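Fill-in record for Motility protein.
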Amino acid sequence: MDLANTALVNNAGSASPGSVQGSAQMMVLKKAINLQAQGVMDLLGSLPPTPAQPALATSGSLGTRLNTYA
């Protein structure tokens, strides 16, 4: 976790509820969380798709019960 986000959480939690300052801090915290969520989604979207694993063999003595990958 980023130290700046920890400070945001601490500030938002220490503000008195219902105050203008508390509302503003909560709004900033929500925007920071949404930005991080969008960044994570962008990173996950940039990953290459996982290759399909081949099915187990249907006959023979090898590959009919266990599929392992290194």
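KEY FINDING: Residues 20-46 form the longest helix (27 residues).
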